[in-house]
UniProtKB/TrEMBL annotation, chain A:
Transmembrane segments: none
Pfam families cross-referenced by the UniProt entry: HTH_34
InterPro entries associated with the record: ArsR-like_HTH, HTH_ArsR_DNA-bd_dom, WH-like_DNA-bd_sf, WH_DNA-bd_dom, WH_DNA-bd_sf
Chain segments annotated as coiled-coil in the UniProt record: none
Lineage, opening ranks: Bacteria, Bacillati, Actinomycetota, Actinomycetes, Micrococcales
Descriptive protein name: Helix-turn-helix domain-containing protein
HTH arsR-type domain: residues covered: 5-90
SUPFAM superfamilies reported in the protein's UniProt record: Winged helix' DNA-binding domain (SSF46785)
Native species: Myceligenerans indicum
From TrEMBL, chain B:
Transmembrane regions listed in the UniProt entry: 45-63, 75-96, 108-127, 139-159, 168-186, 192-211
Keywords recorded for this protein, A-Z: Membrane, Transmembrane, Transmembrane helix
Full protein name: Transporter
Organism of this sequence: Myceligenerans indicum
Length: 101, 221
């Protein structure tokens, strides 16, 4: 396993942090955009851009809703995204184990 | 370290993108730990709030009734205010931490929170029913302490089961033991048992949580 076999969607550090954060939630849990932004300390624009790429890859599910009159956006990792993250993490561990070889 | 930096991976590189596998794994675990600690209530704070409330409140009750008289009104107020303060700390802190999340965990947390509220509202009704039958101060004191500990104990058993936390379940067992001892000892010792075993139980769990948080932090260094 070499680095160029790693999942390109998750490999960018900003998206890796986003996916790691969402993977820390339970499979049935969603997080609001402002809360996710606070956990990542990213700008709203930057976070939106990366979330769109993750959504396009089918890794993140975006739900737009209303709470009272305020629009709210909730994010969650899809099953596919969770599996991709698990594979990515396993690949990193393999890379690390292969260090001395 | 294995670094194939000469083989482009097809992603945006440059800047902090040049991270090796070890750094990436650390990034993942740091971010996940931060996420969990920011979304879950801080157990240390909640145990400290409840431990202090029970310790101060029930010691005041015991101190003013240890000669066999009824507890002083100021002691009753101290216990009441301490418990209301602990409820406020718990609710505000938990709601802040879990705000902005929804789904299975948020639902389970809300149901658990309401369970506490329903339990104590029911206890209040039972005590009022007993007062109406003409129960004296001693009977009310023993029943109130026993019921309070019974509710706390059973809620922690439920919490340990729902959140799969052994320490929470163990605290539940401890609180049921406290309920039994506080009831069998009777007045005035019942209030001392509530302060030392009950309040002490919360404070001990707070200390255990603090040690755990520190260890978890050290592991990641």
């Amino acid at each position: 396993m070499s680095e160029n076999e790693l999942d390109a969607v998750i490999h960018a550090p900003a998206r890796l942090r986003i996916v790691a954060t969402l993977a820390a939630l339970g499979p049935g849990d969603e997080i609001a955009f402002p809360k996710l932004r606070a956990l990542l300390a990213m700008t709203a624009g930057n976070l939106s851009t990366h979330l769109r790429k993750l959504e396009d890859a089918g890794y993140v599910e975006v739900t737009k809703t209303h709470e009272g009159r305020t629009p709210a956006t909730y994010l969650k990792l899809t099953d596919r995204g969770r599996a991709a993250f698990r594979d990515y993490r396993a690949a990193l561990s393999d890379l690390l184990k292969g260090t001395g070889a | 370290m294995s670094k194939d930096h000469d083989t482009p991976s097809g992603t945006e590189r440059g800047g902090d993108a040049e991270l090796d596998a070890a750094a990436r794994l650390r990034l993942i675990s740091d971010q996940q730990q931060l996420t969990r600690s920011m979304l879950e209530p801080d157990a240390r704070l909640l145990y400290l709030a409840w431990g202090a409330a029970w310790m101060v409140g029930y010691l005041a009750m015991w101190f003013t009734s240890r000669d066999g008289s009824d507890p002083a009104p100021w002691a009753g107020w101290t216990l009441g205010i301490a418990v209301v303060a602990a409820i406020a700390v718990t609710m505000i802190h938990s709601i802040r931490r879990t705000a902005g999340t929804r789904g299975t965990s948020a639902r389970a947390g809300a149901m658990y929170g309401w369970g506490w509220m329903l339990g104590f509202v029911t206890m209040w009704a039972i005590l009022n029913g007993l007062i109406r039958t003409g129960a004296d101060g001693e009977m009310i004191a023993v029943t109130a302490n026993g019921l309070a500990c019974l509710i706390v104990g059973l809620m922690y058993l439920a919490g340990g089961m729902a959140f799969q936390e052994d320490s929470l379940y163990a605290l539940g067992v401890w609180m049921l033991v406290t309920a039994a001892v506080a009831s069998l000892v009777g007045v005035p010792g019942t209030n001392l048992v509530m302060a030392l075993l009950g309040g002490g139980g919360f404070l001990t769990m707070g200390a255990v949580s603090a040690v755990r948080v520190r260890r978890r932090g050290n592991l990641d260094v």
